[in-house]
Amino acid sequence: MTTHTPRDEQDASIIIREAAGTGTLLNVSGNSTKAPMGRPNQTDASISSSAMAGITLYEPAELVISARSGTPVLEVMRVLAAKGQELPFEPMDYRSLLGTRGDPTIGAIAAMNISGPRRIMAGAARDSLIGVRFVNGRGEVVKSGGRVMKNVTGLDLVKLMAGSWGTLGFLTEVTFKVLPKQERMATLVIRGLDDRQGIEALSMALGSPFDVTGAAHVPDRDRRGGSTLIRLEGFRVSVDYRMNELKRLLKRFRFMDLLEGVGAEALWQSVRDATLLTDRGERAIWRVSTAPTKGPDLVAQVARSLDAQWFYDWGGGLVWISTAIDDDAGASVMREATRTFGGHAILVRAPAEIRSTLDVFEPQPEALMTLTRGIKASLDPAGILNLGRMYAGI
Question: Where is region (Disordered) located (predicted)?
Answer without folding.
Answer: 27-46
